[in-house]
Amino acid sequence: MRIAFFVNSIAGEGPRFATSLLAMAALNRDHEVVYVTPGDFSLLANGKLAVHVKVLPATKYKKPETFHAALQDKALESRTIDVTEIDALLLRNDPSLDLVTRPWAAYAGILFGRLAAQRGVIVLNDPEGLALAQNKLYFENFPEIVRPPALISRNIDEVRRFVEKHRKGVILKPLQGSGGKNVFKINSISEANLNQIVEALSVEGYLIAQPYIAEAREGDIRLFLLDGKPLKQGDTYAAMRRVPAKGDLRSNIHAKGTAEPAVITDEILSLAEHVRPKLVMDGMFLVGIDIVGDKILEVNVFTPGGLWNIREQSGVDFSGHIIKSVEKKVLLQTESQERIDNRQLATL
């Protein structure tokens, strides 16, 4: 089986990225692995979709650093193939990283992923579902019971009214963004820099305001969902508690947050069950949900990370389990008498 991983750039990949662990697991299960970046597609005049790929050596890897060295090798084989020669295309890019410097690249995965799916390639997460989730506005379509109230606006007066209503403080962040970038806590409307913060965030577009949840001081819980259900092996869930660095309100690992073991309660599983129907409907194969208290703060459908941290804490490598699910989908598509819709297949 040939599995393609679509990323922002090969140079930007790290040895302990979730994508690297997934690619290692695929190689260790004797699959061919190729990498694709936003500029690697060519829709030809005859209607065929060509893909210019980097081919990983057919080697088994134990250490992510060894795999990363192979991925970054300047002599890595380049090949041009027809997209139909790919069995599964995993869209693992973060659009927010390209929005400013390479806006043409931000949604290339969705655009060409659609074309690939139309030609019979299994594309995960489903590109039509990802198109609905291009910013945090997607989160507002989930049941109200699982999410805090939010304001999405660029209007300073609306923001002031929202802050005044929530006396324990408000979190402001860009509607489009990831990794804890440009996240601010506002305690009251009397803060001198409120106007400047709103103005700065508005440069990038709309902003989202959410009430500050006191439990956030203790961090949040990142829980992975696979095929709409909590990812689990034996009694261990693919989950971690992300604790903010001292003096920081962000728990993102990229923002120097630290990872600790997480206890998954029935209440957390109930939250996951509330979001499952929509995730399945939208073809969201692999998702990370971020939980504080009794609310979900974000649903991460683009390249959710943390598998390495979870592996370090629990001793369980979930990447092989995820690749097994990809194998199952390819087999289902191959054995089916009729072609299964990609969005449906994505969570089977």
**CATH A-level architecture of the largest domain:** 3-Layer(aba) Sandwich
Using the coordinates above, name the CATH class of the largest domain. Answer: Alpha Beta
Share in helix: 25-40%
Helix tally equals: 11
Overall number of structural domains = 3
Q: Unreliable segments (pLDDT under 50, ≥5 consecutive)?
A: none
- By helix and strand content, what is the structural category? alpha+beta
Radius of gyration: 20 Å
The name of the CATH topology of the largest domain is Rossmann fold
Reported for the largest beta sheet, the result is: 7 strands, mixed
Q: Give the overall form.
A: globular
The end-to-end distance, rounded to whole angstroms, is: 18 Å
Task: Indicate the proportion of strand residues.
Answer: 15-25%
Overall strand count: 19
Overall pLDDT confidence: 92
Oligomer: single chain
Order of helices and strands: EHEEEHEEHHEHEHEEHEEEEEEEHEEHHH
Family: Belongs to the prokaryotic GSH synthase family.
Protein name: Glutathione synthetase
EC number: 6.3.2.3
Cofactor: Mn(2+); Mg(2+)
Describe the protein:
It is a single chain. A hairpin with a 2-residue loop joins strand 12 (220-226) and strand 13. Helices cover 30% and strands 24% of the residues. The chain is built from 11 helices and 19 strands. Helix 1 crosses helix 10. The longest helix has 17 residues, at 319-335. By secondary structure, it is an alpha+beta fold. The chain has 3 domains: 2-124 and 323-340, Rossmann fold; 149-212, ATP-grasp fold, A domain (Dna Ligase, domain 1, 2-Layer Sandwich), CATH 3.30.1490; 215-317, D-amino Acid Aminotransferase, Chain A, domain 1, CATH 3.30.470.
